[in-house]
Amino acid sequence: MNQISEKSAWAVMGTKAVLLRSRDITVEQGLEHVATWNAAMLRSNDLEEAIQAFLEKRKPVFSKL
């Protein structure tokens, strides 16, 4: 559980939302839903923090929800 808590809260929430939503829709609708979440995540500050932390060889510090 500790590994999950170290990840971006937005990414964890998005993954859970995609998995739950995908159970009740078609594959095509699921892919559209994933594309929407991915587009939102690409604009998040957490992505920038993850990249910067990787380049600086440190653990990322993600924002709270």
UniProtKB/TrEMBL annotation:
InterPro entries from the UniProt entry: ClpP/crotonase-like_dom_sf, Ech1-like, Enoyl-CoA_hydra_C
Its GO CC terms? peroxisome
Q: Name one GO molecular function term.
A: delta(3,5)-delta(2,4)-dienoyl-CoA isomerase activity
Q: GO:BP terms for this protein?
A: fatty acid beta-oxidation
User: What UniProt keywords apply to this chain's record, in alphabetical order?
Assistant: Fatty acid metabolism, Isomerase, Lipid metabolism
The pathway this protein participates in, as annotated, is: Lipid metabolism; fatty acid beta-oxidation
The Swiss-Prot or TrEMBL record describes its family as follows: Belongs to the enoyl-CoA hydratase/isomerase family.
Give the protein name, as stated in the record. Enoyl-CoA hydratase
